[in-house]
Amino acid sequence: xxxxxxxxxxxxxxxxxxARVDFNVPLTEDGKVAxxxxxxxxxxxxxxxxxxxxxVILISHLGRPKGKVDNAVRMDPVAKRLSGLxxxxxxxxxxxxxxxxTEAVAHLQNGDVLLLENVRFNPxxxxxxxxxxxxxxxxxxxxxxxxxGTAHRNHASTVGVTNYLPAYSGFLxxxxxxxxxxxxxxxxxxxxxxxxxxxxxxxxxxxxxxLDTVDAILTGGGMCFTFLKAKGFNIGSSICQENxxxxxxxxxEKAKRNGVDFLLPVDVVVAESLASxxxxxxxxxxxxxxGWMGLDIGPDTVKIYKDMLNRAKTIFWNGPMxxxxxxxxxxxxxxxxxxxxxxxxxxxxxxxxSDAALKKYGLGxxxxxVSTGGGASLKLLGxxxxxxxxxxxxx
Length: 395
Fold this sequence. Notes:
395 residues, alpha/beta, Rossmann fold, 2 domains, 6-stranded parallel β-sheet, 14 helices, elongated
């Protein structure tokens, strides 16, 4: 159950509503929105505010301009795409907290939508500067956070503004927290987690938490080589986080105590380098050649993982099984994505590169729920409190 107040709990008619959204979308070389998934994800909240007669002021970041104006990541392409999606013109400012912005807000009519310029053009955003937060808050009567992808950030537009405005959740943020929390509270069994990506350090909190609820953890990606080294295998020149070897051993011990299957690859695809013309081959994990690097799980591992996933009733996946952007090392990720798509289980994907893989293979619509926030989902599932959620009004 979601424990924060949502926009259902407040009368927004005629009110100026500052809504933090996550429009951090990829752009094409000619400056158009390449993927509007994140924009579409917040349409229910935006549409509701319009229908209820609010004066909607949207704010988001785009890219990493590091507190400086960067014309390459202005919000104009987003405003254009959003206009097309909601069927009405979205006004846009070229600043976030100037007199021109205040004037634009003053001219809003009920149901109008205004998109502010990239909030990260202002150095006060990432620093959660109180002055900047207060300036943002002065534009509105109510604050709504619907940016799950930044809910783990203690920024001015996610947390700082809540010191000056009554703060509510949008529909996407509510849905994200509810769907992900089910995995920790009462998942249908067998429950299996597929974890990949490069860094064990990014996943250690999730692994520790999952070991209390899952039946199996299936590992891949660069992070599996840290686990393999902790087990005593020679991993050649594969990526490894030496400072996580001790943590890895503790995870093996906890898995054993809790009766959880902690699966490592039995074979991997290795290459001499990441160059497109580099030699590559499949080897068992006992026979990784010196100087070669592991870049994908192998076919025997794929078969084992597919058999495991076919028995699952709940599956969570975060992190590719290999360097899926390059065809020789894409088979593991493709196999996991396909197995999830064909599964009768409830399937949840934790955003980021896993979401990109689903799109690449055309499988996104076959998954029960795809999170819009990779980092935020891992923090939440790791048992951490999300500042952008905690700062909202309690029910």
